[in-house]
């Protein structure tokens, strides 16, 4: 879209930044830095700065000295934990049913290019499925390296945990980030999760990396809120006795 | 309330269990076991079983062999992490404003008696406050041991992180559980958080324990959903190099 628009360069940059923000950028990580954006659009740093300043003046972004630009009116509360998650048996409690809606290789969308540090146009493995545990549905979208598609056959996806399959395929998860926020059900959520539009939805985003720091599993799960679904984690700094 | 009701014993037990469920019991942990409830009401185990079976038949609870009875149609997805959370600087990013609404010693409500493993009628320190970070509000309710009230003066509560104050008072957090779910704003949420009733709300519950396993900080935070607030955690099993 950006390339099609006429008008001053700062407007193109402003539009580009607004598009990035709409895909979720500028919350966990800063928006792209001014010099990078100036280089991308082939303009002076002054022109790029003008675009950022217009978004600051409009109350869309805030600039944090030494860190970068973020969406305003958003608060990310992030708790760092040094430790090992125990994925064994995770999501295995109760009767789990997977329905795979699609599993294939696609061109990575812009937000995945950013999260997985890919080049524009690079391919990834995408999985879309519904999951039902104890009668509670979730909508899962997962992105993995393109090579995963050849290593994990579609039949396995329906019956086994993705974390177990990835581990067996040589992708062991060593670090990661999980983010959670609350939203209202879109018409699509409502249809697929069996709730009314506007019903509260818990959205979980994950970025899991292997020991080399490569993103091997990135995605989103949407769950019905209210009394249906709770996400929890336990931590323990004590030596188990 | 339970004591006032006439009718067969199984009805009193059924009513008692429904009341427990309404306060959030039966999700993370099982409902009280049949023999305990039979003893509490001074009835036979058969009578207690009848009450549980009626709730199973009504689709309110499910019984998990060897684990206990849980609310049905609810899914708790819990990720265990062996490690140390780094609370230093947590919730300190951005401009934090606390407004203390109440801070005092109260009789522990039923769900806190359960979570903090107290005796009925035992006293606890309760804090109710609003917190604002980067323009995003939260409603916090916190329960701590009664002795905390004498150790942490009210003036400090307005200006410092509760985790830092507890640590300085000798309550070092060693393990804990965090649970998150999505709800709709009640009229009270709406008024205090500045959103419309029905707006999505992220609720976070926490149970933090010291090295001896005593619950030292238990409570709930409610945040506006949508684009306003994200809760995240990062884990890292690798040795930092």
Automatic annotation (TrEMBL), chains A, B:
GO molecular function, one term: DNA binding
CDD domains per the UniProt record, alphabetical: WHTH_GntR
GO annotation terms (biological process): negative regulation of DNA-templated transcription
InterPro entries named among the record's database cross-references: Bact_HTH_transcr_reg, Chorismate_lyase_/UTRA_dom_sf, Tscrpt_reg_HTH_GntR, UTRA, WH-like_DNA-bd_sf, WH_DNA-bd_sf
SUPFAM superfamilies linked to this entry: Chorismate lyase-like (SSF64288), Winged helix' DNA-binding domain (SSF46785)
PANTHER family listed in its UniProt record: MANNOSYL-D-GLYCERATE TRANSPORT/METABOLISM SYSTEM REPRESSOR MNGR-RELATED (PTHR44846), MANNOSYL-D-GLYCERATE TRANSPORT_METABOLISM SYSTEM REPRESSOR MNGR-RELATED (PTHR44846:SF1)
Protein name: GntR family transcriptional regulator
Organism taxonomic ancestry: Bacteria, Pseudomonadati, Pseudomonadota, Betaproteobacteria, Burkholderiales
